[in-house]
Amino acid sequence: MDTTGKVSMNARAPKGTADMLPDVARAWEHLQRTAQTLFARYGYEPIYTPIFEHTEVFTRGIGEATDIVSKEMYTFEDKGGRSITLRPEGTASVVRAALERNLVANGQSRKLYYAGPMFRYERPQKGRTRQFWQIGVEALGMAEPSADAEVIMLLMCFFEELGIPRANMRLLINSMGDEACRPAYREKIAGFIREHDAELCEECGRRAETNPLRAFDCKNPGCCKVMAEAPLLRDELCDKCAAHYAAVKELLDGLGVGYEEDPSLVRGLDYYTRTVFEVQVDAGLGSQNAIGGGGRYDRLMEEYGGPATPGLGFALGFERTLLAMEAAGVTVLGPALAEVYVARVDDSLAGAAFAIAQELRDGGIAAELDHQGRSLKSQFKQADRLGARAVVVVGPDELATGAVTLRDMSTKDETRVSLDTIAERIKTLLG
Ligand code: AMP
Question: pTM higher than 0.85, yes or no?
Answer without folding.
Answer: yes
